[in-house]
Amino acid sequence: MSDTRYTAGGAAALAPREYHLAEEPHPENGTALGFWLYLMSDCLIFAALFATYGVLGRNYAAGPTGAQLFDLPLVAMNTAFLLLSSITFGFAMLQKQQGKLGGTQLWLAITGLFGLCFLGLELYEFSHLLHEGAGPQRSAFLSSFFTLVGTHGLHVSFGLIWLVTLMIQINKHGLTHENNRRLMCLSMFWHFLDVVWIGVFTFVYLMGVL
């Protein structure tokens, strides 16, 4: 930034003036704290959805039950995809700590592929249920099921969009301080989705079949 000064003869002269911030505008650990608060709010959302399913999960309205609908081997395979994506994300973070750009990008890409496989199988399950006439309007059980599992699937979709965007930023700017901070937030988000899915797999699918 510069300002205009006048000399003794009245002529205007531009004199450069530099301004410096008195302190760093981004507080230390501010992003991590804010993101933890967001995750806690997401916990409340999923807690409400789990509670709703707990109340409505046995109201079949003379329709099909979970034992009749759920394909447990398919869901177990889907669970494996998501858990493996969490492991590969951990490998990406290890590569990031070592400053290896190529390795970080490789493991992030593998994580994204596992996430896409998870979403693909989940969409296949939903389409199969709809084809069988077991849509969310069929019973309170199916309404709460589609809401809970679908909300988790939307979170995974947003996580994949975030992952691709971050990979583009890393490819353009490298492993900068800002990108490292974003990677850490995405890592917390991704592992959070894994924990929620373990609850879904246990509470919805296993208990529904058994």
Automatic annotation (TrEMBL):
Record key words, sorted: Cell membrane, Electron transport, Membrane, Oxidoreductase, Transmembrane, Transmembrane helix, Transport
Main location: membrane
Pfam families associated with the record: COX3
Sequence ranges assigned to domain Heme-copper oxidase subunit III family profile in this UniProt record: 28-209
Role according to the record: Cytochrome bo(3) ubiquinol terminal oxidase is the component of the aerobic respiratory chain of E.coli that predominates when cells are grown at high aeration. Has proton pump activity across the membrane in addition to electron transfer, pumping 2 protons/electron.
Organism: Chryseobacterium sp. B5
Membrane disposition: Multi-pass membrane protein
Protein name stated in the entry: Cytochrome bo(3) ubiquinol oxidase subunit 3
Subunit and interaction comment: Heterooctamer of two A chains, two B chains, two C chains and two D chains.
Family: Belongs to the cytochrome c oxidase subunit 3 family.
Keyword Manganese: no
MF annotations from Gene Ontology: cytochrome bo3 ubiquinol oxidase activity; cytochrome-c oxidase activity
Subcellular location: Cell membrane
GO biological process, one term: aerobic electron transport chain
Keyword Transcription attached: no
Transmembrane segments: 35-55, 75-94, 106-124, 144-168, 189-208
One GO cellular component term: plasma membrane
